[in-house]
Amino acid sequence: MPQPKGQRLLVVRNDKLGDFMLAWPALACLKQAHPDNHVSVLVPHYTAALARACPWVDEVLVDPGDDASRDVQRALLAQLRAGRFDALLTLFSTPRIGWLGWRAGIALRLAPATKWAQVFHNRRIVQRRSRSQRPEYRYNLELAEALLTQLGQPIPILEPPYWPLPTTMRGEQRQRLARECGLDARRRWGFVHGGSGGSAVNLSPAHYAALVASIDVRLDTPAEWVLTSGPGEHAAAAALCDDLVDQGVATRVMPPRDDLVDFAHSLSAADLLIAGSTGPLHIAGCLDVPTVGFYPAKRSATPLRWQTCNRDAHRLAFSPPADEHATDMSRIDIEAAAQAIADWWPAPTASPMPATGSR
Hints:
By secondary structure, the protein is an alpha/beta fold. 36% of the residues lie in helices and 15% in strands. It has twelve helices and twelve strands. It has a six-stranded parallel β-sheet with strand order 3-2-1-4-5-6, with helices on both faces. Strand 2, helix 3 and strand 3 form a beta-alpha-beta unit. The longest helix has 16 residues, at 136-151. InterPro entries: Glyco_trans_9, LPS_LOS_Heptosyltrfase.
């Protein structure tokens, strides 16, 4: 029986950073299914640099967005036509993207069977994501596996990390941070990202200060704490750092990084990252860094739906009670969370390489 040939695949995930990072398992699935698969992605400018750093991506196309002029949209359509893609996988379906795929003449166009945009796709998978019964990255994987089935390709067996960095990277990043911040390499390093980029509810700075101080006092050996920040968040991180230092907690603010990829590489130095459900949390998940996530309890944003894609043993999550105040993060018991984190914090280990194969 002849083996299926490699395919030119276009994957669309053109929304926020965290959403894109949760697409990496699907990208790994498509890339590892066949040695000759060519995987392109259509992403916004904000995530394009990370897309270029993704080991499962061969080509990055930048989506100008819904508000781009008609001429710019025509240029994107011409680019899609020139790509001669065999299949389009739209992880989050919108009418404009569906229309572009149809106009570009891509023969196989697969997307979730949601919203009226599905009329532009000729393969649709019913998922009912609004019920939040599975992790987002699992929904993405389900679509990728459905596409491979349509193409007659085997479905590979995947394991974290979905962003396997060179084995020397973690050591280099730890040496860099130790030099910049005077960190003690013999201690555990806990990273905290208190910002949200406006995309998710999060703990307040006062709650983060109480949490970190409470974790630290419960550890056999105090940790080194590093506060990370995104654009416009450095002042808040510095204020949180001052608060923790006043409490006697060894805390530093990570110096500014050159770009988003440099920032992401820095997260590989962490022994733990604590954050709300935001981009840095999901970058750390892709790196298989142990993560502690703080989530609201509303159905569209639960810890299950927006679970990080690291190993089960590297993942811990907290939410307020699931009632009419499900987004009130102040209702999380900080002392109980601190005790749980201190008891759970995995011992530092070298990141494993992802398992590959087919089933």
